[in-house]
Each structure stands twice: as structure tokens, then as C-alpha cells.
Design goal:
Elements: H1 2-29, H2 40-50, E1 57-61, E2 68-70, E3 75-79, H3 80-84, H4 88-105, H5 109-138, H6 141-178, H7 184-224
Parallel strand pairs: 1-3
Antiparallel strand pairs: 2-3
């Protein structure tokens, strides 16, 4: 019973805490203006151009913290606040997304591996619980095993995402400093934004691993009976 309660806390509380941390940090540093008075779009364009990525476009996208890099269309998409904003948060997030564009241009191994996992990870995310629940209801542990295998691919995707995101943040920090976009007294603020964003990926990976361990344990325990 205690183990199940701990599992529920991990499943619910950790992601909520990570999301809250990101939102609060973003809210705080979205009010802190960067010294160079560059918008997120301008920061992204400068870093892209400095790295010879003139073919990568920058677009404004709807939503809050909806920023992302689209490797298929070679587009860095920034949410409106970050696209037009002059804040420390806007600079950090724009540079992070450009970090993914640089990874793409350099054929960063973990990014390539993650791309190959997308189809099967998406299928695993959708199908795993269907097989697991069906197996439990029907008492068919072979179906549970199929569900666990599907889930393992989704978990692998979450784990591979971690080095991809950490590397993009490191690249962002290095680019912001080397190009002179941020100054010494702004480095701490930028790191806080990047570190907070990374927490969401860590939380997602922890939850995914916990779920996989739980259902895998269920299968092995049932198999031993």
C-alpha cells in the first residue's frame, strides 16, 4: 500500500511541481529585460546567422511556452511573448530552440536517434495501456507483456530526450555568451530559465520509468505464480 502511494505521488506531484517551477521561473524572468534590448526573434536570427544557418526560418506561433524547432521544415517557432519579447526568458528560450537547429545541422547523434524513435514511441504511447488493461481484465499476461514492450519504446524516447534537451541548453548558453547577447550579470538569470525548462523533461522521464517498472513488475510477479 505504501509503495502504491509513493507511486501515485511520483506520478502526480512530480510533474505538477516541475510545471509550476517552469511557469513561475518564466513569469519572473519574462519581466526582466535583457541589456541588449533584442527580441527573442532577433536573438534566434543572430545565433542562426552566426552559425551559417541562413536557411532556417523563424516563425511566430500561438500559445504560451509553445516554442519548438521543426526539423522537417527547418523552422524555429517562438510563442508570441518570446518572439516579440525583450526579456531574459525570451532570449533563453529562443537560444534553446536554435540549439536544436544547430544539433540538426551537425547531425547530433541523440537527436537523430530520437527522430527514428518518434513513430514507434508514438505507437507505444497509444497502444501500451490498451494491451496492459486488456491483459489484466482477461487474465492474459501475454497481452500485458506486449503492452510493456510497447511502453518500453515510449520510455526510451523520454530517456533519449534528456541528453537532447540538456545539450540544446548548453549550446544556447554558449551561444548567448560567445555572441555577446548576454552579459556576465545575465548569465545566472539565463541558467535559471534553462534549468527550470529542463525539469519538465526530467519529471516526464521519471514518471515514464516508474510506470514501466510498475507494469513490468506486475508481469513478472504474475508469471512466477
Amino acid at each position: 500500500m505504501l509503495g502504491y502511494l509513493i507511486y501515485l505521488v511520483l506520478l502526480i506531484a512530480v510533474p505538477l511541481w516541475a510545471q509550476s517551477k517552469v511557469k513561475n521561473t518564466y513569469k519572473k524572468y519574462s519581466k526582466v529585460m535583457n541589456a541588449n534590448r533584442m527580441t527573442g526573434a532577433e536573438v534566434a536570427r543572430k545565433i542562426l546567422d552566426d552559425n551559417g544557418l541562413f536557411d532556417v526560418r523563424i516563425e511566430e506561433t500561438k500559445g504560451t511556452l509553445s516554442d519548438h524547432y521543426d526539423p522537417r521544415k527547418k523552422v524555429v517557432r517562438l510563442s508570441s511573448d518570446n518572439y516579440h519579447g525583450y526579456s531574459a526568458a525570451a532570449s533563453a528560450i529562443a537560444a534553446h530552440e536554435v540549439g536544436h537547429a544547430i544539433q540538426d545541422a551537425e547531425s547530433y547523434a541523440f537527436l537523430r536517434f530520437r527522430h527514428t524513435l518518434v513513430p514507434i514511441a508514438g505507437l507505444g504511447d497509444k497502444m501500451s495501456f490498451i494491451f496492459i488493461i486488456a491483459g489484466i481484465l482477461l487474465g492474459a499476461m501475454n497481452l500485458v507483456l506486449v503492452g510493456v514492450i510497447f511502453m518500453s519504446f515510449a520510455v526510451l524516447f523520454q530517456l533519449v530526450t534528456l541528453p537532447v534537451e540538456f545539450d540544446a541548453s548548453n549550446r544556447a548558453m554558449n551561444q548567448l555568451v560567445s555572441t555577446g547577447i548576454i552579459r556576465n550579470n545575465e548569465e545566472r538569470q539565463t541558467k535559471k530559465v534553462l534549468n527550470a525548462a529542463a525539469l519538465t523533461y526530467v519529471a516526464a522521464a521519471l514518471v515514464a520509468v516508474a510506470e514501466l517498472i510498475r507494469f513490468a513488475s506486475m508481469f513478472f510477479l504474475a508469471s512466477d505464480e
